[in-house]
Specification:
The complex is a heterodimer of chains A (about 450) and B (about 190). Helices cover about 25% and strands about 40% of the residues of chain A. By secondary structure, chain A is α+β, with helices and mostly antiparallel strands. The chains are: A alpha+beta (about 450), B mainly alpha (about 190).
């Protein structure tokens, strides 16, 4: 007789816990159909996600070049051509020195001492393409040769480029809109290991503390750079720990800078070009041209005149400023440009993530410390729409730490693969230059996108 | 056909459809009974069996080899059945049919016979229970879960779980008694 609770429970448990009864027919065929159907949907999702990733990267690339174009356009719009830029055959005189400069057809400036009343204005100005050096000089005998096109290829013609920004923009878009398939992303779960490949365009700038911060802010602009790499993730429940290797470029633009070429033997302007070149001091450090024939200057910013490997002295700065402002240099042809200081870091991120939303889509908060090793640094000038390396920034700190904060969104599109979108803010904790009186901390924003794969 | 379960599981992890078919045939019958025990009718049991296997194939990488694979699979089917129940619970009207029975009139069998109920009969009895009683009885008596866990899974209080279990047992006792009495009667008639 079955009456007690235990007996009933035991009866059903013993009889049914391992009992099997023939499953309905054709069930496997139905399951197989459903699996096939799901596989097809998954493939469509992968393609959609890949297409979305490519579209995102392309749009960011367009944004990057458009940003560069805008910055250049601003320079061109604001800039009033200096006296030193002259059309072929045009003349310019200086009241103070009584000198007459004349642009010759071969791109040289003839400077003549004249006795008549100076006019002190540019005549007959128009942007021109310079004639070849083979053509005869139609001016009076040149007194001094200030520039040589051989020492700085493409230098003179860049003026023409400066005046044709609109058409150049389209050319840029057509020729330089390169799609960079940056990351080969992958996917997601807990107590699990993932491998992620991500990349992002970065909006990079800096925070500067010091006496001249306001002046520097006026001339220094943010730059668009990029960061790309991979990291491994260990995920347990709601927490994630990640570590990896990234290449991250930080950068800073300096607008309204004039590049001047100086003949090496020419020292009557008070510069001993045999021993030093002029350098520009900005918030990240002293930009030292790698060629002695080049002067980087901006009299409105802070101009440094520095002996190689010596720290900057205020005395040096004042002297050089005075020298640059002096009349002798005023007639030197200069190239208005903007510089981009690039600091390339190898970055080892150590990030912690807490996932506060964990359904189909995972959303988490990220924070961490990134160790940064300075791999290289270069300063480029925009010359003829191309970046030409002109020098380096001195005394940069080779090791830096960056604090990172961000949000991570993982959108799965297969069992193993997820699409990652990670807006991230990075702030360098140590000043970028170890010898500078200014305290400069770079920072960047960027939306990393990529793919995460479950290992 | 003599493949080890581990090899079949490894094949399923790679998405091999032959391994999936083998796994299905290896466990389908037992999982079918699980579905029958939890589902209110055959149609729903079929749906749970089909969707359950798809989930098994999709989540098989999450099975880490700790504990029995069958136990892991069984939990998936049970969870699916519970999810189905939660979705449709509002459609089930609360049953108080126990009023139909009085404790007195329930199975007092004088005969101490040794009739043994078949698995199929017991399965039918469980399937005929009202939804919430069925779930609680399955989870408590067969899956051997605690009232606390059951309450959490079904979103009810522990007290409700206990009372449902009590009622389920009463119901089953009644069914067993009826079945038993019917058999006795049939035997007597036959004699």
């Amino acid at each position: 007789m079955i009456d007690s609770r235990d007996e009933i429970d035991r009866l059903f448990r013993d009889k049914l816990s391992d009992y099997g009864e023939e499953a309905p027919p054709y069930m496997w065929e139905k399951i197989e159909d459903r699996l096939r159907q799901k596989r097809r949907i998954r493939m469509v999702r992968i393609w959609v996600a890949l297409a979305a990733s490519i579209a995102l990267i392309v749009s960011m690339g367009v944004g990057y070049y458009f940003g560069q174009y805008r910055a250049k356009q601003q320079v061109a719009d604001k800039y009033t051509y200096p006296e030193s830029i002259m059309a072929v055959g045009s003349e310019q005189s200086s009241a103070e020195t009584g000198q007459l400069s004349k642009m010759t057809k071969d791109g040289e400036v003839a400077v003549q001492q004249v006795a008549h009343e100076p006019v002190n204005r540019v005549t007959n100005y128009q942007p021109v393409a310079l004639a070849s050096p083979a053509e005869p000089v139609d001016s009076g005998a040149p007194v001094k040769e200030i520039t040589t096109s051989a020492s700085f290829p493409g230098y003179m013609n860049s003026r023409q480029g400066l005046c044709q920004q609109n058409s150049l923009y389209h050319t840029l878009l057509a020729e330089r809109m390169i799609v960079e398939p940056e990351e080969k992303p992958k996917d997601s779960a807990h107590g699990q290991v993932f491998l992620a490949f991500t990349a992002a365009p970065l909006y990079a700038y800096r925070v500067v503390n010091g006496a001249q911060a306001a002046t520097l802010d006026e001339f220094e602009k943010p730059a668009v750079t990029f960061s790309a790499g991979m990291h491994a993730i260990y995920a347990s429940r709601r927490f994630q720990l990640s570590m990896g290797l990234y290449f991250t470029r930080m950068a800073l633009r300096i607008d309204k800078v004039v590049l001047r070429e100086v003949a090496q033997t020419y020292d009557s302007y008070g510069i001993n070009t045999d021993q030093q070149s002029a350098a520009l001091l900005n918030s990240s450090g002293t930009i030292q041209p790698t060629t002695r024939e080049l002067i980087v200057s901006n009299t409105e910013l802070v101009v440094a005149y520095q002996y190689p490997d010596q720290t900057l002295s205020q005395h040096g700065v004042d002297n050089f400023k005075a020298s640059l402002m002096g009349e002798n240099l005023r007639n030197m042809p200069g190239e208005l440009t903007s510089l981009t200081q690039q600091f390339n870091y190898l970055e080892i991120p150590l990030n912690f993530q807490y996932n506060f939303y964990q359904r189909r889509i995972t959303v988490g908060l990220q924070t961490g410390i990134n160790a940064n090793l300075l791999a290289s640094n270069s300063t480029y000038a925009e010359i003829e729409d191309q970046q030409t390396k002109i020098g380096q920034t001195h005394h940069l700190r080779t090791f830096n730490l960056a604090a990172v904060m961000g949000i991570s969104v993982a959108i799965p599109f297969t069992q193993r693969l997820s699409f990652l979108v990670e807006p991230r803010f990075r702030y360098y904790l140590l000043s970028v230059n170890r010898n500078m009186p200014l305290d400069t901390h770079p920072y960047s924003y960027g939306i990393y996108t990529g793919i995460r794969v479950r290992y | 056909m003599t493949d080890r379960v581990e090899e079949i599981i490894a094949g399923c992890r790679k998405g091999d459809s032959r391994a999936q078919e083998k796994l299905y045939h290896m466990f389908a019958n037992r999982m079918w009974v699980v579905c029958r025990r939890y589902a209110p009718d055959i149609e729903q049991a079929r749906d749970i069996l089909q969707e359950g296997f798809i989930v098994v194939f999709e989540k098989i990488h999450q099975y880490r080899g700790n504990g029995s694979f069958e136990g892991w699979m069984r939990r998936i089917f049970i969870n699916m059945a519970l999810a189905e129940y939660r979705k449709k619970r509002l459609l089930y009207c609360e049953t108080n049919e126990l009023q139909l029975y009085s404790r007195k009139e329930s199975f007092e069998h004088e005969e101490e016979d040794t009739y043994e109920f078949s698995e199929a009969e017991l399965l039918e009895m469980i399937a005929s229970l009202p939804p919430q009683y069925r779930l609680v009885f399955n989870l408590y008596a067969i899956e051997e879960m605690s009232h606390k866990d059951i309450a959490q899974m079904l979103g009810i209080s522990e007290g409700t779980s206990k009372s449902n279990l009590f009622r389920a047992r009463e119901w089953l006792k009644k069914k067993l008694a009826e079945k038993h009495a019917g058999i006795q009667k049939a035997l007597k008639v036959k004699w």
